[in-house]
Amino acid sequence: MKISKKILAIALAVIMVLSVLPFSAFATEYEAGSQISGSQLQTGDKISLQDTNVHALFGGAVLKAGQFLEFSSYKACQNWNKANGTVTSSDIYLSDDNFSLGEYYFKYVEDGDSGKCYVPIDKNGNVLEYILVLEKTDDDFAPITFGTYVAPAPAAHTHSFTYTANGDTITATCGNTDCDLTENKVTLKIVPNPVLYYDDGQPKEASLEGLEAFNAATGKNISTDNIAYYKGDTNVTAQIKAGSGTSIKISTYTARLDVEGKRATVTFRLTAKPTPHTHKFTYNAEGNVITATCTQSTSNMEACDLENKQATLTLNAPLHATYGDGKEANATLTGEIPGVTNPTIHYSKGSATLSSAPTDAGTYTAWCQLGNAIARVEYTVAIAVNSGYTTLPHAVENLVYTGEAQELVTAGVTNTGQIAYTAGTDPDNEPDVYAGGMPYSYSVPKMTDAGTYYVWCKLDGGKNYTSLGAQKIAVVTIAKANPAYSVPTELTATYGDTLSSVVLPEGWTWADGTQSVGDVGTNIFKANFTPADTANYNTVENVDVTVKVNQPEPHNGVNLTVGNDITSNYYVDFAAYTGAQKIRYSYNCVNELEQNVQDGATIALDEIPDEMIDATSGRFVLEVSQAPAQMAEPTVIEILDGNNQVIDTLNYSAKSYCDKVLGMSDDELAQYTAKGAELRKLCHTMIAYGQAAQGVFDEYDTVKVYCENADVNAQIDAASVTANHTVDNSGMIKFSGVSFVCTKDARLRFYLNTSEATSTPAAPTASTGNAALKYTLNGAEKQYFVEVSGINAADFNEQITVNYGGSTIKLSVLDFAGIVLRDGSGASAALQHFAKTLVVYNTNALAFFGN
What we know:
Blueprint: E1 11-14, E2 29-30, E3 46-47, E4 69-70, E5 98-101, E6 104-111, E7 115-121, E8 130-133, E9 145-146, E10 161-166, E11 169-174, E12 185-191, E13 207-209, H1 211-218, E14 228-231, E15 234-235, H2 237-242, E16 251-259, E17 262-270, E18 281-286, E19 289-294, E20 310-316, E21 332-335, E22 346-349, E23 352-354, E24 362-370, E25 373-381, E26 394-395, E27 399-400, E28 406-407, E29 409-410, E30 418-424, E31 446-447, E32 451-460, E33 468-479, E34 491-494, E35 508-510, E36 521-529, E37 540-550, E38 557-562, E39 566-572, E40 582-590, E41 596-604, E42 620-626, E43 635-640, E44 646-652, H3 654-663, H4 666-670, H5 676-700, E45 704-707, E46 725-726, E47 734-742, E48 746-753, E49 765-766, E50 772-777, E51 780-788, E52 800-804, E53 807-811, H6 813-823, H7 829-849
Parallel strand pairs: 2-3, 27-33, 34-37
Antiparallel strand pairs: 1-8, 4-9, 5-6, 6-7, 10-11, 11-12, 12-13, 14-15, 14-16, 16-17, 18-19, 19-20, 20-21, 22-23, 22-24, 24-25, 26-29, 28-31, 30-32, 32-33, 35-36, 36-37, 38-39, 39-42, 40-41, 40-43, 43-44, 45-47, 46-53, 47-48, 48-51, 49-52, 50-51, 52-53
Helix pairs in contact: 3-5, 5-7, 6-7
């Protein structure tokens, strides 16, 4: 074939991606024979070719050095010149079907217009976008050879080092660019000798880490001979290198290395050569493994040669796994603890220790002990097979709860083993396998409570053989019994209530608690009785129960005052009573003749005087005054209809009021008075006062008590004037005594005697205006007595003045109490106790009522 003599210059360039600017012109032209590195070339650059020097451009890369391919002939495919038009050169023939230029590839293809040709492809076989560049050098055509391209050698790098030292390391850092050292650095480190015994006669020289690289980079010739050794300030280099000398002892030493005026140092310590190691073990067990840990101190001894200073023994379960299998029944130990004899293996079942390795079926524990460490392994020897029922158990019928345990089934019969029974309430699950279920027993199961029971049984083949599995054999019912009960009686309700407000005895409930109790009178309702033991007894329903319906309880009340006497004020709300027409009341009191009487009246509601109606609430007010000793005696108030039939009865007393106050909490009491604590004390004292007064009554039979005391009965003259009685010089007056009279109010009575007076004085007068009265004492007529009544408890300390015969006598209730307590040699214990309560009663009344 005729070859054109033209010198064809070919440059192949890959068009990168569509986002790259399309090829338009060469950025740079390189003459033939130019030395060009790959980093210089850009896509589209033009290179003139020589016969033996070809640069092919693919994405800016060049052929690798040492790679070449000969073209014996060549032909251009028309589609090569996608950027610059159709190629019209002669045919190009290549000697191979496929070939590569470095990391790029060519593919032999058939072209309809141009025939066979080569196109550039990537490593995946995809045809690349490319440009064929032709350069004509003359009119001749000749074969072109793709030859070897030798890249020019890069210029040699020159280091420029600076040196630094830090601890045991010297670093040389290059300051020039394009340095091939890692991070532009090279280091040299002093490493102490790993064996540092002063007495073994061996050199103790340190080594240098990174020495070869350091010398190669820096051009220096450093060696371990450049290291100097010091003990303090003393140079001991010779002794360290020799490993002996008078200076080489247990001590701390320093190794120094100086490079370019920089010094690296490292400190190390020589110690005595340890003695051969002997183990000292502690033991720990985890599961079936005992771990021995060597705790021997190595301060003067060689290190322990055990890995992690530990050795182990493993306890392995026996091979014997099924009863009668003939395999070894003994457990084994594997592993070794140096110098330690393997421990004895023991066996146990549960908490029982066995004398030898077991062969019976069961679950066992093999264990052994070293020190306090115990290794354990649990294993099971399986049992063999057994079977056979002759007669299965069957259910007992028509059982009813009796309170006693009853057998549920008749016993079954078996030829081998024993039948075990259990019973439960779950129809689907074996009772023995759920929480609270009955365990199996060889006795026929018994149950006490009513219910439906499911009886199971299984055949127990003994300890070495399997048994027949559990099976449900019977369903047995114990029926509930009917309970004994008593119908509730004496039930009451208030008109307007529902049955839910009527409390039934335990076990009883209303069939409809929302039902009204109905009209006043006697009504019958349905109730149900639920026994305490509902599991075993039936509930009885719709039992007739009678309820008495009363008038609603009115908003009645009582309060207490301590004024001239103990007064109870009773408040009655007639509007709360349907059909109320009259009120009747009665209570014990002391009349003006100092006699106990029953006071009371019946008043029609439309005739109640205005003064007995509270102006604020509109309620009836009954004021009852009683002697202290009568404070526990009730006041009975009855509400009557037009036929004088009793609608309601109210019972109150002064003591019940005080008891109520004393039973209140602080918060409850605060709703009635701001002086709750004072009222509580007053009520407490009033009860004591009433009890003391009653004691006096029991002793004297009359309500009038007085004390004829020698001191009190003495002559009163100018020579014997006291703070409580005064007398002028003309009088010779004696008074027989002073008594505190317990009637419906507090009274102080002065008994006067003029039998020894030289003249009969005028009738005595008191500061209250009370008149003097004649009296008789012990059958003898006396002259006068003056009685002062209406003394409030809070005024017991106020003195009463009596003028008689030109003399003045002054005395108070508390003065009288003081005379009884201080001078009353004839006073009884009851009277003295009564006098004490007067003092406390006065104090608490003052505290509550104030001044």
